[in-house]
Amino acid sequence: MKMSFLSSGIFWGAVLVLFGISVLLKAVFHIDIPVFRILVGLIIIYFGLKVLTGWHGFSSVNSAVFSDCSIAPGDIKGDYSVVFAKGTMDLSNADIKNKSVTVRVHTVFGDTTIYVDKNMPVKVQAEAVFSGVKMADGNLVSIGDLTYLSLSYKEGGNCLIIKSDTVFGSLKIVNK
């Protein structure tokens, strides 16, 4: 699967390194490089070029980039990404009879809604950075970590485990 450059780990790693170098240069040598402004300008140019060339994003079984999609995995497989997009996932039919199932959901500048069965044992471990993460019980987190355990969750028993990272986006866990 081909991923967009903006959704790659190389891009975001480079952004963080450049931001860190900028902070050090300003603190030690009093040199001010407007990394954030440059980054915003480059992203706007990137979007402009994508619009001019007619590219409107893509979605696949495991990801949505610059598009709206509904992800209803029959066989739940590992990682799912929603980048500059809106994604809906229905995990209410996850098969946890024989073993626990772990799903990783990454939302970057996007909106993700995950539906889970209200009677299923579910554990959600969410990490949020300048985001809105809302759990099925109504708890919210914007910056930091939050763990949600459904009423039927029992430590050591089979369950659906959702590990999410949300950066500048929105994630909602909804009982179905």
In words, what does this structure look like?
- By secondary structure, the protein is an alpha/beta fold.
- It is built from two helices and 13 strands.
- The strands form two sheets. A seven-stranded mixed β-sheet has the order 1-2-4-6-12-8-11, with no helix packed on it.
- Strand 9 and strand 10 form a beta hairpin.
- The two termini are 31 Å apart.
- The mean pLDDT is 82.
Instruction: Please state how the strands of the largest beta sheet are arranged side by side.
Output: 1-2-4-6-12-8-11
Task: Specify the biggest β-sheet.
Answer: 7 strands, mixed
How much of the sequence lies in strands comes to 35-45%
Please state the CA-atom Rg, rounded to the nearest Å: 18 Å
Give the helix level as a range of percent. Answer: 10-25%
Poorly predicted regions: none
Structural class: alpha/beta
Number of helices: 2
SSE string:
HHEEEEEEEEEEEEE
Distance between the termini: 31 Å
Could you tell me the number of beta strands? 13
Q: Tell me the domain tally.
A: 2
Shape: elongated
Mean pLDDT, nearest integer?
A: 82
